[in-house]
Amino acid sequence: MSQIVRPYGDTTGDGMVQLSFTLPISSIGDLAKVADGAAVQLANKMGMDPALVVHSKPMGEGFTFFVVYGRVNHLVDVSKVEVVERDYPLLTPKEANAAIKRALRRRLVVVGGCIGTDAHTVGIDAILNIKGFAGEKGLEYYREVKVVNLGAQVSVPQLVDRARQEKADAVLVSQVVTQRDAHLLNTREMSAAFRESYPAGKRPLLVVGGPRFDEAMAADLGVDRVFTRGTTPGDVASYLVHRLTTDRPDRKAS
Known about the structure:
It is built from seven helices and twelve strands. By secondary structure, it is an alpha/beta fold. It folds into two domains: 11-78, Defensin A-like (2-Layer Sandwich), CATH 3.30.30.60; 86-251, Rossmann fold (3-Layer(aba) Sandwich), CATH 3.40.50. It has a five-stranded parallel β-sheet with strand order 9-8-10-11-12, sandwiched between helices. It is elongated. The two termini are 24 Å apart. It comes from Nocardioides bigeumensis. Residues 107-251 form the B12-binding domain. This is B12-binding domain-containing protein.
């Protein structure tokens, strides 16, 4: 299970911040100084003092884009920052393949896709496709892993049915669309569907990923792991191998 840790550190403050925003005000001609003043006023109200407009540019009729630089005095207590610690070793593809072959004595089956109306497959493809991401090969490259990539806009019932059909060990879901917390609603719907469709303790590992997820929300969402931006195929492969060959003896070959 993922572990939430608190890193040690001193309380710090008095930092410099760069902020960009757009205001519904014109900055053309004589209005430029007025617009800059409005930007400084907003920055002051947000806690930046002093604030300096370092860039402004008209953005269509009646709008201006600003970049403001300034000092803030808000305190940050680093000791209260919560992060999810990686609680498994990182493996090379060769090590992962060897562990799967030794422990499962069969290929590890992964079913993945984007659920709901989400059509952004860049994330799931980066993890599953052989071309991979950040210089690492995707899970299709792993000899002992069978990958079933369902692509975009997969319904939850379709995902569950295919996972059962393939006897999946793990289900990977990518969610990029976040309007009205769609990624959270879709994930909870998915986890509930798998709980209803599998006997207790027998469902596949459920793993979700996307840039707007909070890693600490796995339990709340009903999934086993949440991955966020910067995750590589090696991260995911190492986690799956660890969980399925170490923590989930019920998933081993009988």
